[in-house]
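Worked example 3. Consider a protein that binds magnesium ion.
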Amino acid sequence: MNNTFLKRGLAPVSIGIIAATLSYSAITLAEKAKEPWQLAEETEVWEPVPAVISVPANGIPSDAVVLFDGKNLNQWQGAEGGAAKWKIVDGAMVVVPKTGDIKTKESFCDVQLHVEWKTPTLITDDAGKLLDGQARNNSGVFFQERYEVQVLDSFNNKTYPNGQAGSVYKQSIPLVNASRAPGEWQTYDIIFTAPKFDSAQKLTSPGYVTVLHNGVLVQNHFEIQGATEWIGKPAYKAHSCAPIRLQDHGNAMNFRNIWVRKL
Ligand code: MG
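Given these inputs, the predicted complex is written out as structure tokens:
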């Protein structure tokens, strides 16, 4: 037996360890003393409370901006200025070929967009020649006037997959081809996260896009590579919030029930 140690008593370090052990035991006992509901409450988060919105039977959320309800083109203008020259037929806006793209009057950043579209049943040109590939009823939804989610008749119509319906044009092939036949209404539900730029015009965060085509996921948080290009590689160039643009690619594409939620 080491009498010296006993005479001197416990070293300060040992006292510390004992105190910590007792303290820990006390906490453990206190935790054990808690009822399960008390423990469950510790991981409940009560703020912030989400805003209450309503979603009526027509599916348009109460916080959405309605861009087209079948009645008029009041929310739209020509992409190069002036009035939108597309026509309204049976509650749908229809591309009048060669009148140009149209764009929203309002600018948007991050959004959730719902748009319905229908490709014409006629798949031949005026001379009776079969339209195929990119020529078969092409249009597009451009976010911020730059980033295109392709609209195309991709029902039994071969083209380069990064240019078919549901693609991020020339950037990302859709996960599946969820196309319906010509003449059937189809839906896009798209979550678009805008790219961010700093005050020196430098990209600080790329854009992202998630696309559901007829309710089916076809783009899953794809990182956009830059502005859509037909020729060459995409690249970013700084910009602010900007309109949503719909493409006149020379085909009488139909659109209806378009609404957007700002995120
Ligand atoms: Mg297009």
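Take a moment to read the result before moving on. Residues 138-140, 148, 150, 247, 249 surround magnesium ion (CB under 6 Å). Residues 3-41 form one domain.
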